[in-house]
Amino acid sequence: MSVREGRQRQVRQGDAPALPVPMGLGRGLVLAAVFVCAACGLVYELELVALASYLVGDSVTQASVVLSVMVFAMGVGSLLAKRWCGRAAAGFGAVEVLLALVGGLSALALYASFAWLGESRSVLVGFSLGIGVLIGAEIPLLMMLIQRIRRQDPGGAVADLFAADYVGALVGGLAFPFLLLPLLGQLDAALLTGAVNAVAGGAVVLWLFRGDLSARCRMALCTANACVLALLLLAAVLTGPFEVAAQRAIYGSAVRHTERTAVQEVVLTGNGPKSLRIFLDGRLRVSGANEYRYHEALAHPAMAGRHRRVLVLGGGDGLALREVLRYRSVRAVTLVDYDPGLVRLARTDPHLVALNHGSQRDPRVRVVVGDAFQWLRTRAGVGRYDVVLCDLPDPGISRSAKLYSREFYGLAAMALAPDGRLAVHAGDPESRPEAFWAVDASVRAAGLRAVEYRVRGNWGFVLASRREPRLRLDARAPKLRSLTAASLRRAGALRADRQRHREPPSTLMHPRYLSASLP
Predict the structure, then answer these.
(1) What InterPro entries does this protein map onto (predicted)?
(2) Rounded distance between C-alpha atoms, residue 310 and residue 324, angstroms
């Protein structure tokens, strides 16, 4: 009988291997490996969810896709691991090498796909499947390794194994948003996790269970681990140039400022106010060439009437604020935006300041950094505003859906003066009519009367008040570049469409916007 056959027979018979440490310590080290592998596995999952939400949008759908595909793949991986149970140490070593490679490079691959191919859904599903299969193969193999050290009741072994697994998942789940993401960013966090995964898996197999491996197998695993670690290190060194190249592929060569704020990625391009473009989480939100069409349409119909006190929800770029401050009769404006980084750029970036006319520096303005929903919830009864403008992120992501809900508009209505007016950006009624009319239904469900209008550029809006609102411009309105009384009347020819689109209102319990984001 050969040495290899004898070793396989020893493993099948359950004979204890010759460990370099006492049996109890060896078992503890295996459970520690379970802990580390579980933490790394959950970081991979959260990394995929975060990147998918950022690159694709609709965080609820993307999280559902990633998690469901991974759970299915874990079941497949558990079945495939049965073939390696006779050589658990070698199988576990191979799985960890592959998992470190695939998981560590997953963020780079997704970002590269988005930047150069414009498509990341198929890559997302592919990595979810691959990582899920490898994670699923870990548990059966680790169970065999624990039983190799000391045979015990299967129920007790499973309890110990899953206890270490769940605690590791807790640590990984907390480390990702509170430690890895803010300190390292998405790309470096995935690379570091892959390196930790490779080191932990290699240490267990190549040191603790080296007696279960042939010389050729040990050499192959050592070489594979060294190559993976070297590749991850090289990728970490090149993440800076990679990000620059990817940003140029996405935004063009005129990228001037890139910043990952506490809320989103903000990218500014262009070398002047007219050429300035603002991208939030990879999507164009402001173009200096035509933004005035949007902001004039949002602000000026609502300003027709009393407007001494104005509330702007969102609009951290200061552009809607610019339009409000063109009225000398405005006495006080409160701006509430969730992103402190964008608010700061609106005050300090020279091109953005030139575009917003330094609106945040006006003494009539008070800027509040915070969540608009929570701010209204605590302050709605304190002040009464003549005008409320909702210049908010699109509702296609779960964190924004509440800002387009019936509950939110109910809070906004409480902040209105008796004859106050509310203006809401509601998207394009032609390309995404369901989302547009759901916004309209939500405003009406909050007890307000509304009129809808759309201006050139496919921007749709809802103007609402307690009384029937009228689409008009204030007699004291400043000279506008795109909006006139006649064009505003034409923009309001949407009443007939409401009869064809009877959408239900969106609520906190039943959001209606997560299937498609607004433009």
Answers:
(1) MFS_trans_sf, PABS, PABS_CS, SAM-dependent_MTases_sf, Spermi_synthase
(2) 8
Per CATH, the homologous superfamily of domain 289-500 is: Vaccinia Virus protein VP39 (3.40.50.150)
Say if 3-249 and 289-500 have the same CATH topology: no
Side-chain half-sphere exposure of 495, counting CA atoms within 13 A:
9
**Sequence spans of domains, the chain:** 3-249, 289-500
Establish whether 337 is an annotated binding residue: yes
Q: Is-contact 308 417, C-beta < 8 A?
A: no
Asked if residue 394 belongs to a known ligand binding site, the reply is: no
Q: Is 165 known as a binding-site position?
A: no
Tokens of 43: 């970081």
Q: Look at the block and give the residue holding tokens 């890559």.
A: 123
User: Which residue carries 């990000």 as its tokens?
Assistant: 243
Q: What is the pTM of this model?
A: 0.80
Closest to 513 in 3D by CA, of 459, 442, 409: 442
* Residues 294 and 317 sit within 8 Å (Cβ to Cβ): no
Encode pLDDT of 41-73 as tens digits.
999 999 998 888 777 766 677 788 889 999 999
Is 391 among the catalytic positions? yes
Fold of 3-249: Growth Hormone; Chain: A; (1.20.1250)
Distance CA 384, CA 387 (A): 9
On whether 160 is known to bind a ligand per the annotation, the reply is: no
The pLDDT assigned to 264 comes to 82
Cβ burial of 356 (10 Å; 0-12, 13-18, 19+) is buried
Residue ranges of the chain with per-residue pLDDT less than 50: 1-14, 515-519
Look up residue 349 and give its two tokens. Answer: 């970036």
pLDDT tens figures, 319-361: 999 999 999 999 999 999 999 999 999 999 999 999 999 999 9
How many other C-beta atoms lie within 10 A of the C-beta of residue 178?
Answer: 10
Cβ-in-10-Å burial (0-12, 13-18, 19+) of 8 comes to middle
Set 58, 386, 391, 440: catalytic member = 391
Pick from 258, 261, 297: which is nearest to 277 by CA? 258
428 among the known binding-site residues? no
